[in-house]
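Researcher: Before we compare anything, I want clean individual predictions. No alignment, no superposition, just each chain on its own. First chain goes here; please echo the sequence and then give the structure tokens.
Model: Echoing the first chain and its structure:
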Amino acid sequence: METRHDGIFGDAPLGTDATHREDKYRSYDELKRVLNHFDTKGRPFSMSTVGTSNQGRGIDMVSVGRGNTDVLLVGHQHGNESTGSTSLLALLYYMASGKYEAYLDEVTVHVIPRANPDGAAIGFRGNVDPDAPDPNTSNGIFTTTYRGRGWDPNRYHFPDWTESRLYRNQPEEFPENPVPAARAVTEAVERVDPEWFLDIHGQSAKTTEDGEDVTHSLMWPVLGDKPIPENGLALSKRMCVQMYDHLSRFDQVVSRYPATAGYPGVAHKAYALQDRGSVIFESVEPQSVDQYRNRTLAALPSFMSLIGTTATGDLYDRDPERVEDIPHTR
């Protein structure tokens, strides 16, 4: 029997081979129809195109709200990690319900549901760029050649491109950022000047140190060679505490996303260096429609709680040291 998506989950059949295919979430054309629907609603909704992919697809941002505090949520940087666009479309539907008008008087929410539309079209981690060079991370070349060829968008978020390893090693060949998805998000951050940034990804199955199956992971920015500014680091930890508490209420198993010293071009690290709150949010990639619904509907309240406590100011009362309560991933 064929299983079909509904509502936020798209209209195409979900087959057994859907793990690396666009048919487990809305196609690009379906996504555009949904985003255009929000745009036609008028204030407090509006839509803008913040970039264009290598294959000519628009990278769109929906903004909703009237508040002076701006926040930015981004999904689907990696084309084979679909929960970002699914959960962010659900967020937009919920915000259109009229139940959260009080929040929107204080906060303006900006959402980029699918930062990497080309990779999403084929279920490919990177963007699609046949001219991308072979990987050489020591030279600043983070590319993917498995199942296709392209750049990893989540390594190129440099507000100042001259600080990137790629530019420093090959300034004549790469005088500008070669990754449209990263350029689009970087320019969106510059445009809206968000108080905080949430980067939503999908991950493989993981367990906690106690052996529990993880549903979601969170992590604040960690860098080895550059200190994260104090205010941005504290706000990032408060965001993690808020979402951890809220997810736990829904019996979700939350862990810390494994942290390494990392690379400053990774989105949640790059924007934290600008002294913003900045968090990476990972959901274990669902393998069925029911898991999609359950993971999305669990993540939604945590996003709304983050927006709501920003609007009320309660977020700033969270104890950042409580991130130590979040268990490590095994």
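Researcher: Okay. Second chain, same rules.
Model: Second chain and its structure:
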Amino acid sequence: MTAEALPLTGCPCVSDPTSGLPQPRGSTSRRGLLRGAALVGATTMFGSTAVTLGRLPGAAAEIASVAVSPASSVLVVLSLRGAADGLSLVVPHADPAYYLSRPTIAVPSAALLAKDASFGLHPALAPLLPMWESGQLAAVHATGMAVPNRSHFAAMEELEDAAPGSSSRVGWLNRLIGDDAVASTVQGLAVGSGLPMSLIGTEAAMSFRSLETAVLAGGDKRYDPRGSRARSLKTQWAQSSTPMGAGVRNALGALVDLGPAKAQADRATSFPPSSLGQALSSVSRTLRGEIGVSVVTVDAGSWDMHTEMGTVAAGAMTSSAADLATCIAAFFADLGPVADKVTLVTISEFGRRVQENANRGLDHGWGNVMFVAGAGVKGGSYYGRWPGLRNTLDADLAVTTDYRSVLAEIVAARTGASTATVFPGFTREKVGVMVGQ
């Protein structure tokens, strides 16, 4: 098995309005130059050409690096892929339609945690109860897109683009790291299978599966002990006067080692062995290294539960909820002092139907719940306007809070970036889940 190659997408160039060719974007001293290319194991796109970058064994002295600026705040977006059932995670126990519509899979009111007059948490979320009780975790119900979209792929792309009607294929997190108020060196990082739509765009962002295995593609010490590949890239483009040459030289000059992150204690065994647990272990270790990452995305399992969801005793929902809660709790515990600047938000492409189907599962719906945890959160409460449920075959949880209002409130409270830039054409409503908002 070879070491992992990490993709980094996003062009550090703009298109020439006459030729359409990518052009260098300012001087190498500009703070925004090749954001994210400073990390290891990256494939940067210059126009249609991929340039693979990464750690440079044996060649570090030949390539300039940039100074690392620790991020002042960090946003972690945890995507519950497959459309999680928010009505199971945060149960509206006071709404009679909930129990009428789910005769076999409803979560009993007596089993709920953090219960108030209207809502309660699924009992499998018990590992998060200390964060809830200490005011570090909150939930916003009946959130989602303004118009239902029940296609997993189309909905996730629309959700992560967060600019309905725009012809520009740029994700909201890419726009966020492009804002000069978000002042850090590396900025965008996706841990998992690759870059999500939210990080696609003109600003560079990096991805890896595991911090430990992050290396230059083809540059593993076992196969390239002298760093020949990195030197070859530098030599190949050193004298080029083309925009491509300038871009490659700028990319190589922006590289920094992941050493500060890899030097942090690897405490993966304190996380669940699930893919989410190991991903969050890498995220925590990276953030503890203070290498400038300010935006992180992570995917959490498969929540597409059309059949046999199970009960609170056992089943797919209980297992997934337990893993989610245990992983998030372990993540914040492992961060140590860095936790004081990390805010995590969960998001899913849509919710599930109110009424269970004949297979004791749930079909695609609309409204959902979002969890917000960590720094700046006014926790221990449920937020949002409850629309009520209907016990009919095609009933959905209606959306009363646009998901962008939740994200925009976090962006405004924690980053100082322009929400008008990050969410173009959108006017946010007050949610109240963040301090000062």
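Researcher: What stands out in the second chain?
Model: Residues 1-66 have pLDDT under 50 and may be disordered. Additionally, The domain at 74-181+260-422 is CATH 3.40.720 (Alkaline Phosphatase, subunit A).
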